[in-house]
Structure formats: structure tokens, C-alpha cells
Amino acid sequence: MDQNEIKEMYDNADKFIDLANEMHKSVSQDKIGLALRYAAARYSAFEASLKTNNLAEDKDKLLQFFTNTFTEMLEPNFEDYINQQSKNKLI
Asked: CB-based contacts of 44: which residues, under 8 Å, 6+ apart?
């Protein structure tokens, strides 16, 4: 992805995060997280169906792609929150 695509991805993600933060005023973070993961899974399956003419044949390959992509995105966010928790404990 080029810099414009990366910025667009972050801007779009921020819209989902803003909605989740708004929902958090009346819904627990557990329920919001579960809904976001389900929505991501549902939309990813839809996206995968558009990437192939034979989803049944390509299912394992596409599952691995989406799993790897999610893990690659999740890892640095875990590290960010680990660092934030560490700083808060020092205060």
C-alpha cells in the first residue's frame, strides 16, 4: 500500500472506532468487541467471495490470508497497550 492508501485505511478505521466509542456509552466493551469481530469476520467472508470464483477451493488460503493480516495488525496494537500500561504503573 502506498502512503495515501495507508492514510485512507486509518481514516476509515477511525470511523469504526469512533462508532465503537460512542456505543461504549451504553454497551460494554466486551459486547462491542464481539460485534466488531463478528462484523469483520462477516465482511471478510464477503470480501473473500469476491476475490475468487471458487470460494470452497480457495477457502483455506483465504482464511490464512485474513488470519495473518489480522495478527499483523493486532500485534503492534498489543505492544502499544502494553507500553501504555507500563507507563501508567510508573506513575
From this structure: 66
Q: What is the pTM of this model?
A: 0.85
Please provide the size of the chain in residues: 91
Q: Which residue has the cell 460485534?
A: 35
For helices 55-90 and 29-51, angle between their N-to-C axes, nearest 10 degrees: 150
Q: Do 48 and 55 touch, CB atoms closer than 8 A?
A: yes
Q: What is the spatial distance between Cα 47 and Cα 49, in angstroms, rounded to a whole number?
A: 5
Task: Answer yes or no: is pLDDT of 72 > 90.
Answer: yes
Q: With beta carbons less than 8 A apart as the criterion, state whether 20 and 32 touch.
A: yes
* The one-letter amino acid at 79: E
pLDDT in tens, 9-41: 999 999 999 999 999 999 999 999 999 999 999
Distance CA 13, CA 11 (A): 5
